Each structure stands twice: as C-alpha cells, then as structure tokens.
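Service request form, structural biology core

Requester: graduate student, group of Dr. S.
Request type: structure prediction, single chain
Budget code: on file
Notes: please return the result as structure tokens.

Sequence provided:
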Amino acid sequence: MGRFDRIWLAFEKFAIFFSFVVTMTVVVILLLLGIGLWRVAPALPGLRDNTICPLLAQVDGLVNDFNNAVITRTITISQTIPVAFDLTLDQNTVVKLTKSIPLNRSATFVLPGGGGQINGTVSLALPDGMSLPIHLTMPVPIRQDLPVHMDVLVSIPLKETELGSVTGQLKDILTPYTKLLSDLLNCPKP
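Core staff response, request fulfilled:
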C-alpha cells in the first residue's frame, strides 16, 4: 500500500466519523425539539389563537396600510422671488396739473374777407390743478423682489412615489407566507 493510499484511507475514515458525529448531533437536536414541542403542545391552541394568528393578521394589515399610506405635511415657504416684466399701458385717463404750464406757440392768423394773414405768437398758461384728459400708451418696466410667505398643505399617496413599487413588492413577498401560516394554523379569516 502506497503513501497516497494510506492518506486516502485516513481521509475516508475521518469523513465517515465526521458524518456520523454531524448526523448524531442533528438527530439529538431533533429529538430535543420534538420532546420540547410535545411538552408545549397543550399550550399551542392558546398560542395560536392569542398570539400567532393575530400577529399574522396584523402583519397583513400593516402591509396593506403601508401600501395605502398618504404622506400629509404642511410646508412653509418663505423666500424672495424676483419679478421682472414690462407692463404695457394703453388707456384713457385724466391727469391733474401740479403747477401752471406756460404755452408759447407760433401762429398764423387769416383775416376775413381777403384781408391777408398775420404771423404772430400765442402765449397762454394752463393753470395749476387743471384736469386734462389724455391717452396713455407706454411700457412700464416692473423690476422688484417680492417676499413670499405661505403654508402649503401637501398630500402625497405613497403608492404614487418611488416607494410604491417597494411596498407592492413587500406585499407580494409577505402575502404567500402569511397565507400559508394562516392556513397551516387554521387561523380564522378576517
């Protein structure tokens, strides 16, 4: 018998012994668990009815509630918004003079009956406080920073966010297990 054959034979004996030890350990553990369950068996209906079945129903309800949850929050907005635009005015209005306005204009006067014409100057003053009807057509540039302070109520359904798919997957994963355990334990249906 060669050196390699002796090493292989030793390995085989060790593997058989190791397998025997592991198998015996598993058998002893299963026997101990069986004895423990046998002693606990009378308490199982109470444990099932008072703890396990309500817990399974609660897990199922929580997953449904989580999937249908809505995030409701009041967000306070407090910032300054720059406003820049041109407002075009095109309207009739009445203005009141704040001081006397002198007017001097060149004028040509035509005399009646073919008497000729006279070139001259007309001078007059529009009095302070006089109302003048005018038509305004002009762009008015608006450039201002406006402070904005408000509370905004936000309501976000969770299933419409990125978490919606996660909660759906969680429900898909847990539902078969809770149903299986409920059926195995013969839990009452909600």
